[in-house]
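Entry:
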Amino acid sequence: MIDLVHQAEGALDAYSRVVISVAEQLAPSVANLRVTQRSRRGHATTGAGSAIVLTADGFLLTSAHVVADRSTEGRASFTDGREHRFAIIGRDPLSDLAVLRTDANSLDPAVLGEAETLRVGQLVVAIGNPHGFEGSVTAGVVSALGRTLAAGARNGGRLIDNLIQTDAALNPGNSGGALVNGRGEVVGVNTAVAGIGLGLAIPINAPTRTIIGALMREGRVRRAWLGIAGGPRPLPPAVRERIGAKRGVEVIEVIDDSPADHAGLRPEDLIVSADGVSVTDVAELQRLLVGERIGQRLTLRVVRAGELREIELVPHELEG
Protein backbone atom coordinates (compact mmCIF):
# COMPACT_ATOMS: atom_id res chain seq x y z
CA MET A 1 0.00 0.00 0.00
CA ILE A 2 2.82 2.38 0.90
CA ASP A 3 4.50 1.67 -2.47
CA LEU A 4 1.26 2.49 -4.29
CA VAL A 5 0.97 5.77 -2.39
CA HIS A 6 4.56 6.64 -3.24
CA GLN A 7 3.98 5.79 -6.89
CA ALA A 8 0.86 7.99 -6.98
CA GLU A 9 2.76 10.83 -5.32
CA GLY A 10 5.61 10.40 -7.80
CA ALA A 11 3.23 10.55 -10.76
CA LEU A 12 1.56 13.66 -9.34
CA ASP A 13 4.93 15.30 -8.78
CA ALA A 14 5.93 14.55 -12.37
CA TYR A 15 2.64 16.02 -13.65
CA SER A 16 3.11 19.11 -11.47
CA ARG A 17 6.69 19.59 -12.66
CA VAL A 18 5.57 19.63 -16.28
CA VAL A 19 2.79 22.14 -15.62
CA ILE A 20 5.05 24.35 -13.50
CA SER A 21 7.80 24.28 -16.13
CA VAL A 22 5.38 25.17 -18.93
CA ALA A 23 3.79 27.97 -16.88
CA GLU A 24 7.15 29.52 -15.98
CA GLN A 25 8.37 29.28 -19.56
CA LEU A 26 5.26 30.70 -21.26
CA ALA A 27 3.84 33.23 -18.81
CA PRO A 28 6.13 36.06 -20.04
CA SER A 29 5.01 35.31 -23.62
CA VAL A 30 1.26 35.75 -22.99
CA ALA A 31 -0.12 39.29 -22.75
CA ASN A 32 -3.24 40.55 -21.01
CA LEU A 33 -5.27 42.70 -23.41
CA ARG A 34 -7.50 45.54 -22.30
CA VAL A 35 -9.55 46.47 -25.33
CA THR A 36 -10.94 49.95 -25.99
CA GLN A 37 -12.84 51.52 -28.86
CA ARG A 38 -12.87 55.10 -30.11
CA SER A 39 -16.09 57.04 -29.80
CA ARG A 40 -17.24 60.66 -29.75
CA ARG A 41 -16.68 60.71 -26.02
CA GLY A 42 -13.14 59.32 -26.23
CA HIS A 43 -12.11 55.73 -25.56
CA ALA A 44 -14.42 53.26 -23.87
CA THR A 45 -13.39 49.85 -22.53
CA THR A 46 -15.18 47.17 -24.54
CA GLY A 47 -13.59 43.92 -23.44
CA ALA A 48 -10.53 41.93 -22.49
CA GLY A 49 -8.57 38.96 -23.73
CA SER A 50 -5.14 37.46 -24.15
CA ALA A 51 -2.44 37.44 -26.81
CA ILE A 52 0.65 35.39 -27.64
CA VAL A 53 3.99 37.07 -28.36
CA LEU A 54 5.13 36.21 -31.89
CA THR A 55 8.28 38.35 -32.16
CA ALA A 56 10.55 40.25 -29.83
CA ASP A 57 9.78 43.51 -31.66
CA GLY A 58 6.12 43.57 -30.74
CA PHE A 59 3.97 41.34 -32.97
CA LEU A 60 1.20 39.57 -31.01
CA LEU A 61 -1.28 36.87 -32.02
CA THR A 62 -4.82 36.85 -30.62
CA SER A 63 -8.40 35.91 -31.49
CA ALA A 64 -10.16 38.10 -34.03
CA HIS A 65 -13.28 38.33 -31.87
CA VAL A 66 -11.23 39.89 -29.06
CA VAL A 67 -10.46 42.91 -31.26
CA ALA A 68 -13.85 43.42 -32.88
CA ASP A 69 -12.96 45.83 -35.71
CA ARG A 70 -10.37 48.22 -37.06
CA SER A 71 -11.33 51.00 -34.65
CA THR A 72 -10.33 48.81 -31.71
CA GLU A 73 -7.27 49.83 -29.70
CA GLY A 74 -6.01 49.02 -26.24
CA ARG A 75 -3.12 48.04 -24.05
CA ALA A 76 -1.14 44.85 -23.66
CA SER A 77 0.38 44.18 -20.26
CA PHE A 78 2.94 41.54 -19.33
CA THR A 79 3.89 39.61 -16.20
CA ASP A 80 7.00 41.77 -15.68
CA GLY A 81 4.81 44.85 -15.28
CA ARG A 82 5.40 46.37 -18.71
CA GLU A 83 2.43 47.80 -20.58
CA HIS A 84 2.27 48.90 -24.22
CA ARG A 85 -0.43 50.25 -26.50
CA PHE A 86 -1.32 47.98 -29.42
CA ALA A 87 -2.74 48.52 -32.88
CA ILE A 88 -4.39 45.99 -35.17
CA ILE A 89 -2.22 44.90 -38.10
CA GLY A 90 -4.74 42.44 -39.55
CA ARG A 91 -7.89 40.48 -38.63
CA ASP A 92 -9.27 37.29 -40.16
CA PRO A 93 -12.68 36.57 -38.62
CA LEU A 94 -13.01 33.45 -40.73
CA SER A 95 -10.20 31.76 -38.80
CA ASP A 96 -10.77 33.89 -35.67
CA LEU A 97 -7.16 35.05 -35.74
CA ALA A 98 -5.70 38.55 -35.54
CA VAL A 99 -2.21 40.03 -35.45
CA LEU A 100 -1.45 43.08 -33.31
CA ARG A 101 1.63 45.29 -33.03
CA THR A 102 3.01 47.08 -29.99
CA ASP A 103 5.95 49.47 -29.69
CA ALA A 104 7.85 46.99 -27.50
CA ASN A 105 11.26 45.80 -28.68
CA SER A 106 12.40 43.18 -26.17
CA LEU A 107 9.49 40.80 -25.67
CA ASP A 108 9.79 37.03 -25.09
CA PRO A 109 8.44 35.22 -28.19
CA ALA A 110 6.63 31.95 -27.67
CA VAL A 111 7.76 28.86 -29.55
CA LEU A 112 5.08 27.70 -32.00
CA GLY A 113 4.69 23.94 -32.12
CA GLU A 114 2.76 21.59 -34.42
CA ALA A 115 -0.80 20.63 -33.59
CA GLU A 116 -0.78 17.83 -36.17
CA THR A 117 1.25 15.71 -33.73
CA LEU A 118 -1.31 16.01 -30.92
CA ARG A 119 -3.08 12.89 -29.68
CA VAL A 120 -6.32 12.57 -27.76
CA GLY A 121 -5.47 12.26 -24.06
CA GLN A 122 -2.26 14.30 -24.34
CA LEU A 123 -1.48 16.82 -21.56
CA VAL A 124 -2.02 20.47 -22.48
CA VAL A 125 -1.81 23.68 -20.47
CA ALA A 126 -3.91 26.80 -21.11
CA ILE A 127 -2.35 30.16 -20.25
CA GLY A 128 -4.33 33.38 -20.40
CA ASN A 129 -6.16 36.04 -18.45
CA PRO A 130 -9.67 34.81 -17.59
CA HIS A 131 -11.87 37.53 -16.09
CA GLY A 132 -8.79 39.79 -16.10
CA PHE A 133 -6.74 37.60 -13.75
CA GLU A 134 -3.32 37.86 -15.39
CA GLY A 135 -1.15 34.82 -16.03
CA SER A 136 -3.73 32.21 -15.07
CA VAL A 137 -2.82 28.59 -15.76
CA THR A 138 -5.11 25.58 -16.14
CA ALA A 139 -4.18 22.07 -17.20
CA GLY A 140 -6.05 19.21 -18.82
CA VAL A 141 -5.90 16.93 -21.81
CA VAL A 142 -6.77 17.01 -25.50
CA SER A 143 -10.36 15.74 -25.39
CA ALA A 144 -10.90 15.51 -29.15
CA LEU A 145 -9.51 16.73 -32.48
CA GLY A 146 -11.16 17.96 -35.67
CA ARG A 147 -14.02 19.86 -34.02
CA THR A 148 -15.98 22.57 -35.87
CA LEU A 149 -17.20 25.92 -34.51
CA ALA A 150 -19.96 27.87 -36.24
CA ALA A 151 -20.24 31.65 -35.94
CA GLY A 152 -21.96 34.46 -37.82
CA ALA A 153 -20.48 36.32 -40.75
CA ARG A 154 -21.60 38.55 -43.58
CA ASN A 155 -21.47 35.70 -46.04
CA GLY A 156 -24.28 33.94 -44.18
CA GLY A 157 -22.22 31.70 -41.93
CA ARG A 158 -18.67 31.15 -40.74
CA LEU A 159 -17.38 27.69 -39.91
CA ILE A 160 -13.99 27.25 -38.25
CA ASP A 161 -12.76 23.71 -38.84
CA ASN A 162 -10.22 21.38 -37.29
CA LEU A 163 -10.33 22.82 -33.77
CA ILE A 164 -8.72 21.24 -30.70
CA GLN A 165 -11.13 20.35 -27.89
CA THR A 166 -9.70 20.39 -24.37
CA ASP A 167 -10.99 20.02 -20.83
CA ALA A 168 -8.43 22.54 -19.54
CA ALA A 169 -10.66 25.20 -17.98
CA LEU A 170 -11.26 28.22 -20.25
CA ASN A 171 -13.22 31.30 -19.21
CA PRO A 172 -13.98 34.74 -20.71
CA GLY A 173 -10.64 36.48 -21.14
CA ASN A 174 -8.81 33.29 -22.13
CA SER A 175 -9.56 33.96 -25.81
CA GLY A 176 -6.33 34.63 -27.69
CA GLY A 177 -4.25 32.88 -25.06
CA ALA A 178 -1.96 29.91 -25.51
CA LEU A 179 -2.71 26.20 -25.46
CA VAL A 180 0.66 24.60 -24.79
CA ASN A 181 2.05 21.06 -24.90
CA GLY A 182 4.32 19.52 -22.29
CA ARG A 183 7.44 20.79 -24.11
CA GLY A 184 6.33 24.41 -23.78
CA GLU A 185 5.34 24.79 -27.44
CA VAL A 186 2.17 26.66 -28.36
CA VAL A 187 -0.05 24.21 -30.23
CA GLY A 188 -3.28 26.19 -30.18
CA VAL A 189 -4.88 29.61 -29.73
CA ASN A 190 -7.74 29.43 -27.24
CA THR A 191 -10.86 30.67 -28.98
CA ALA A 192 -14.11 29.59 -27.31
CA VAL A 193 -15.81 28.21 -24.24
CA ALA A 194 -18.39 25.75 -25.56
CA GLY A 195 -19.60 24.46 -22.19
CA ILE A 196 -18.43 23.23 -18.81
CA GLY A 197 -15.23 21.26 -19.37
CA LEU A 198 -15.37 22.03 -23.10
CA GLY A 199 -12.90 24.52 -24.52
CA LEU A 200 -11.84 24.96 -28.14
CA ALA A 201 -8.56 26.16 -29.63
CA ILE A 202 -7.39 26.96 -33.14
CA PRO A 203 -4.54 24.57 -34.03
CA ILE A 204 -1.06 25.80 -34.86
CA ASN A 205 -0.40 24.05 -38.17
CA ALA A 206 0.60 24.88 -41.74
CA PRO A 207 -2.69 26.65 -42.68
CA THR A 208 -2.57 28.71 -39.48
CA ARG A 209 1.04 29.72 -40.09
CA THR A 210 0.06 30.82 -43.61
CA ILE A 211 -2.74 32.96 -42.17
CA ILE A 212 -0.42 34.52 -39.57
CA GLY A 213 2.16 35.34 -42.26
CA ALA A 214 -0.46 36.95 -44.51
CA LEU A 215 -1.81 39.05 -41.65
CA MET A 216 1.67 40.24 -40.71
CA ARG A 217 2.60 41.11 -44.32
CA GLU A 218 -0.66 42.30 -45.85
CA GLY A 219 -3.15 42.72 -43.03
CA ARG A 220 -5.65 40.36 -44.65
CA VAL A 221 -6.08 36.81 -45.96
CA ARG A 222 -7.44 35.84 -49.37
CA ARG A 223 -8.76 32.32 -49.60
CA ALA A 224 -11.21 30.30 -51.62
CA TRP A 225 -14.47 29.31 -49.97
CA LEU A 226 -16.61 26.23 -50.57
CA GLY A 227 -19.25 26.78 -47.90
CA ILE A 228 -19.00 23.59 -45.88
CA ALA A 229 -18.09 22.45 -42.40
CA GLY A 230 -16.15 19.21 -42.36
CA GLY A 231 -14.34 16.72 -40.23
CA PRO A 232 -12.13 13.64 -40.74
CA ARG A 233 -13.83 10.26 -41.18
CA PRO A 234 -12.60 6.76 -42.09
CA LEU A 235 -13.58 5.60 -45.59
CA PRO A 236 -15.68 2.48 -46.17
CA PRO A 237 -13.49 -0.62 -46.74
CA ALA A 238 -14.55 -1.02 -50.39
CA VAL A 239 -13.62 2.60 -51.15
CA ARG A 240 -10.30 2.23 -49.32
CA GLU A 241 -9.31 -0.65 -51.56
CA ARG A 242 -10.39 1.18 -54.69
CA ILE A 243 -8.58 4.50 -54.14
CA GLY A 244 -5.84 3.46 -51.69
CA ALA A 245 -6.73 5.99 -48.98
CA LYS A 246 -7.99 5.39 -45.46
CA ARG A 247 -9.70 8.70 -44.63
CA GLY A 248 -11.61 11.54 -46.21
CA VAL A 249 -13.33 14.76 -45.17
CA GLU A 250 -16.97 14.29 -44.21
CA VAL A 251 -19.29 17.17 -45.10
CA ILE A 252 -21.02 17.96 -41.81
CA GLU A 253 -22.91 21.07 -42.92
CA VAL A 254 -23.51 22.94 -46.18
CA ILE A 255 -24.09 26.71 -46.05
CA ASP A 256 -27.16 27.93 -47.93
CA ASP A 257 -26.44 29.75 -51.21
CA SER A 258 -22.75 28.76 -51.08
CA PRO A 259 -20.68 27.26 -53.94
CA ALA A 260 -21.06 23.82 -52.31
CA ASP A 261 -24.84 24.30 -52.07
CA HIS A 262 -25.11 25.34 -55.73
CA ALA A 263 -22.99 22.37 -56.82
CA GLY A 264 -25.14 19.88 -54.92
CA LEU A 265 -22.79 18.79 -52.13
CA ARG A 266 -24.70 17.20 -49.26
CA PRO A 267 -24.09 16.47 -45.58
CA GLU A 268 -22.47 13.02 -45.15
CA ASP A 269 -20.67 13.27 -48.50
CA LEU A 270 -17.03 12.21 -48.09
CA ILE A 271 -14.50 14.33 -50.00
CA VAL A 272 -11.46 12.26 -50.98
CA SER A 273 -9.69 14.59 -53.45
CA ALA A 274 -9.75 18.08 -54.94
CA ASP A 275 -8.50 18.51 -58.52
CA GLY A 276 -6.81 15.13 -58.20
CA VAL A 277 -5.01 15.95 -54.93
CA SER A 278 -5.87 13.54 -52.12
CA VAL A 279 -7.42 15.06 -48.97
CA THR A 280 -7.60 13.02 -45.80
CA ASP A 281 -8.41 15.77 -43.29
CA VAL A 282 -9.69 19.34 -43.11
CA ALA A 283 -6.19 20.84 -42.93
CA GLU A 284 -5.23 19.28 -46.27
CA LEU A 285 -8.38 20.65 -47.89
CA GLN A 286 -7.77 24.09 -46.41
CA ARG A 287 -4.21 24.14 -47.78
CA LEU A 288 -5.62 23.73 -51.29
CA LEU A 289 -8.10 26.60 -50.98
CA VAL A 290 -5.61 29.38 -51.68
CA GLY A 291 -6.51 32.76 -53.13
CA GLU A 292 -5.54 31.72 -56.64
CA ARG A 293 -8.45 29.25 -56.73
CA ILE A 294 -11.07 31.97 -56.31
CA GLY A 295 -13.34 31.93 -59.37
CA GLN A 296 -11.59 28.88 -60.86
CA ARG A 297 -13.43 25.60 -61.44
CA LEU A 298 -12.60 22.93 -58.86
CA THR A 299 -13.41 19.23 -59.17
CA LEU A 300 -14.14 17.35 -55.97
CA ARG A 301 -14.17 13.57 -55.85
CA VAL A 302 -16.67 12.44 -53.23
CA VAL A 303 -18.11 9.24 -51.82
CA ARG A 304 -21.91 9.27 -51.57
CA ALA A 305 -23.83 6.21 -50.42
CA GLY A 306 -20.73 4.10 -51.07
CA GLU A 307 -20.30 5.30 -54.66
CA LEU A 308 -17.57 7.56 -56.05
CA ARG A 309 -18.66 10.59 -58.04
CA GLU A 310 -17.22 13.93 -59.18
CA ILE A 311 -18.73 17.31 -58.36
CA GLU A 312 -17.59 20.56 -59.98
CA LEU A 313 -17.91 23.91 -58.27
CA VAL A 314 -16.43 27.42 -58.44
CA PRO A 315 -15.10 28.69 -55.09
CA HIS A 316 -15.89 32.25 -54.01
CA GLU A 317 -13.63 34.52 -52.03
CA LEU A 318 -14.04 33.96 -48.33
CA GLU A 319 -15.13 37.27 -46.81
CA GLY A 320 -15.04 38.33 -43.21
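Residues 152-157 have pLDDT under 50 and may be disordered.
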